[in-house]
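Long-time lurker. I teach an intro course on protein structure, and each term I like to show students one example going from raw sequence to a predicted 3D structure in token notation. This year I'd like something fresh instead of my usual example. Would anyone be willing to generate the tokens for the chain below so I can use it in lecture? Attribution to the forum is fine with me.
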Amino acid sequence: MNWLSFLHELTEATDKIALRYFCQVDLQVEYKKDNSPVTKADREIEEYIRVEAKKYEPALGFCGEEFGQEAAELRLIIDPIDGTRSFIRGVPVFATLLGLEENGRLIAGLVSAPALGMRWHAGLGQGAFLRDKNTGREIQMHVSRISDLARAQLYHSSLAGNEIDPLSAAKILNVIKKTERQRGYGDFYQHMLVAQGSGEIALDPELKAWDLAGPKIIVEEAGGKVTAFDGEANNLFAGTAVSTNGLLHAEVLKLLA
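-- Reply from a regular --
Happy to contribute to a lecture. Here you go:
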């Protein structure tokens, strides 16, 4: 089965769903038990993916943000809209994230950001690629070769408020102080910027498996490294993530500790 081609087909359809709801004046927003927002677009996209993917491979299992998970040797990990708060506020930095896992190992990933016209994808051992709908080009991505932290560009999520605890914020600030430049893009986008060589470090102090699965394999296939803040490399449920170009990873982990 050509899973990457199929994931592209899925997101051609889900991009249209997302854009139909994006910037909708009367978009209804609900809040889940963990106080995270959800919209009709989130649920419609995940439901579409589950139905179509099950037709493609009946033995497929799922792990999704909106409709839970089921165990299977092969399963699709789904974040229908990563950056829902941005989506709600009319900020175009949101995406559908898909990660395909086989016996606990990621074998494919795709991140599609329709409002940006960008799609990133990777297959295990096949490299990572950026498809830019604005230019019509597809390029293979490589992380940067910057090995000096003082020359690094760092991306981060919220540094205060309900999305981060004070200890995690202090750890991130400890790394920030050592870098040349910083921007607070957060969500999937910071990891994709590392993958395409537009920065060296992305720090996410709070995330779920569906936030990480798609971006992780893309960063790694671009030559980078992704672990939890404590250095654990193979646990999608660790709850934290640091992506780097690999050259700075050990130094960043030391600062986070």
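Some talking points for your students: The chain has a mean pLDDT of 95. The helical segments are 3-21, 40-56, 84-89, 166-176, 187-195, 209-221, 249-256.
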